[in-house]
Predict the structure.
Amino acid sequence: MIVDATASLAPPRRNLHRFANPGRFLRLAGAVLPWLTAGALILTAIGLVWGLFFSPADWQQGDAVRIMYVHVPAAWLASAGYAALAACSVASLVWRHPLADLAAQEIGPVGAAFAALCLITGSLWGKPMWGAWWVWDARLTSVLVLFFLYLGHITLIRAFDNPERGYRAGAILALIGVVDLPIIKFSVDWWNTLHQGNTISLTGAPHMYISMLWPLLFSTLGFTLAFAAIVTARLRAAVMERRIRALLMARAQHAGAEEWGPA
Amino acid sequence: MTFLPYVAASYALGVIVPGGFALAAWRRMRAATRKLAAIDPRRARRASEKTS
């Protein structure tokens, strides 16, 4: 039996770059986007209405606990968005995936907006509960650092005349910034913080009433689908804009060549 | 409802921020689709094949 030595190597490369073809990506994104949008709208609406009107108030915090249904999804997406940004950076630096740079560029502003949403809703929750809009607590400070990392990434990729250099610098910053994610996660365990400890974990039972947990899960899933839908739409637009630029440049070159004629 | 202004402000931001980004992304996508359809020869060819 003859065995092709390259056959075992071919599938991973093909799979990795399977969606790198812009045309294929546009078709796939166009098919997925309506479902993501519909799911996001339905789940977020259920989660927020349930959390605002039907879930119980906390015995200690009163109705201020309802801020949780916006604050927790925003906090989760600020971190998850940054993890996605770092994954795109790895794909860009290691495998030179053609869409990874564009994806990182489009994730950045959305992640920054969710980090800002997390900080602002945290402030709105902190004022009535702690009596202060802001404290230099380990959890709050590490999320603020995450917000600045997002801003740094957004700025850095636009700071170079050559976009490739910008993408590379942004990718390196994104990978260095990953160190902030475990600090955010474990800050409430490593330091004495005013911020409460983790109420939900993958390994243990939640320290929360089930009547509060369900709307929180709906809201978190809904906001996650919204994040995915926004990034997919932005990436779709970015791929088309890149094609538009390429076509216009090709036209300009063609027109220039015709005008000057053969040398 | 206790602490209503804080809760209302949080929910308003929770709707406005993602909603604003979604709207901006949708408008950007529509503008790119239109512009690409106008200048891309492959798309123009496909469109003319559909109409003929």
